[in-house]
Amino acid sequence: MVLEILEYPDKRLFERSVEVDKFDTELGEFLDNMYDTMIFKGGIGLAAIQVGRPIRALIINLVNENEIQDKGDLLEIINPKFIKKDGEQLYQEGCLSVPGYYEDVKRAANVTLEYQDRFGASHTLEADGLLAVALQHENDHLDGHLFIERIGFNKRKKFDKEYKKKSKQKPL
């Protein structure tokens, strides 16, 4: 089932999400709905808070070398904790909650993450490149932050100006 994605400036996007402590069929169904929503909207990642549920859950499904978003590569990450971040990379990011806006964001180049899967089993994941960026971007959502908070003062002023202009043009 495709869920509604919250869009900036919805205040719920700035809430800190709570840890998941129940790993049941309801969680599994919710993760499946998150996946359907992400694919339908053309995203590569989605945090639970983006669909109105403030729990520490996110999904990521990058496009593979054959330009296919294979569900077999889907990462379902519950209660993530970064245990290592190093290096630096600049990557142009976008967000389903800030549609139509893209900007370069500085992130760690290499990350190590501990997390649980939909069944509560613990895992460790090392990532670099786009996967490292996506993990940090989606985890920011769980902490109540959007990528536009990381773009610098002048770019943020420009974004706010463009956003206000676009908002005035939207029909009621």
Automatic annotation (TrEMBL):
Query: Would I find Glycoprotein among this entry's keywords?
Result: no
What's the cofactor?
A: Fe(2+)
Q: What is its EC number?
A: 3.5.1.88
GO terms of molecular function: metal ion binding; peptide deformylase activity
Q: Which UniProt keywords apply?
A: Hydrolase, Iron, Metal-binding, Protein biosynthesis
Where do the TM regions start and end?
none
Q: What residues bind Fe cation, as annotated?
A: C95, H137, H141
Catalytic residues identified in the record: E138
Q: Name one GO biological process term.
A: translation
Record field: catalytic activity: N-terminal N-formyl-L-methionyl-[peptide] + H2O = N-terminal L-methionyl-[peptide] + formate
A Pfam family cross-referenced in the UniProt record is: Pep_deformylase
The keyword Nucleotide-binding is annotated on this UniProt entry: no
Q: What's noted on cofactor binding?
A: Binds 1 Fe(2+) ion.
Q: Which CDD domains match?
A: Pep_deformylase (cd00487)
What family does this chain come from, according to its entry?
Belongs to the polypeptide deformylase family.
Q: What does this protein do?
A: Removes the formyl group from the N-terminal Met of newly synthesized proteins. Requires at least a dipeptide for an efficient rate of reaction. N-terminal L-methionine is a prerequisite for activity but the enzyme has broad specificity at other positions.
**Could you tell me what this protein is called?**
Peptide deformylase
Quote the gene name from the UniProt entry.
def
